[in-house]
Amino acid sequence: MFSRNTLILVALAAVASAQTSITLTNDCTYQVDPAFYPDAIASDGSATGGFPLAAGASAGVTLDPTYSGRIWGRTGCDSDGDCATGQCPGGENCTGPAAAGPTLAQFTLDGYDSLDFFNPSTTDGFNVAITITPGAGCSVGPQSCTADNEGTGCGDTSACPTGTSYTVSFC
Ligand SMILES: *[C@@H]1O[C@H](CO)[C@@H](O)[C@H](O)[C@H]1NC(C)=O
């Protein structure tokens, strides 16, 4: 027999596992500060609008099950979160989207039919190359914007089963 507490724990585990994992990888030779609007969830469980990522470094965040928003990279940021490109309101921890157009990685998780929809996009502009690579369980290959409206699938929307993990890489 399951106890009531066991059932509650099982329910909590189901909610936690419904979050989508995003690995951010900085393949640039310079620091890139990933930014999120709306907020992602950092590895310590706190909400995050962005943080610095050193050249060659990776970081993991999760997105809420029905997240619909954008991830972008900021370049040339100082310790106050004042950046040469991709600047957002709120400093390092963004509280809104960038006013001047960076390259975007757009995600709508569980949009319909248990599918996630995503694209790399330069509709707002281009500041750094972005590649979105779906993980296991999705047959879609890497989708990238390597320059304004150039790359493999730049601006094209792809779909993967909800629950897929993604890597978003810069450069
Ligand atoms: C970033 O802002 C969110 C609120 O949007 C807050 O919950 C979080 O603690 C902040 N993180 C840091 C590192 O300041």
Automatic annotation (TrEMBL):
PROSITE patterns: THAUMATIN_2. Pfam families: Thaumatin. Keywords: Disulfide bond, Signal. Residues 1-18 form the signal peptide. InterPro entries: Osmotin/thaumatin-like_sf, Thaumatin. It comes from the Eukaryota. Disulfide bonds join C77-C83, C88-C94. This is Osmotin, thaumatin-like protein. It comes from Daedalea quercina L-15889.
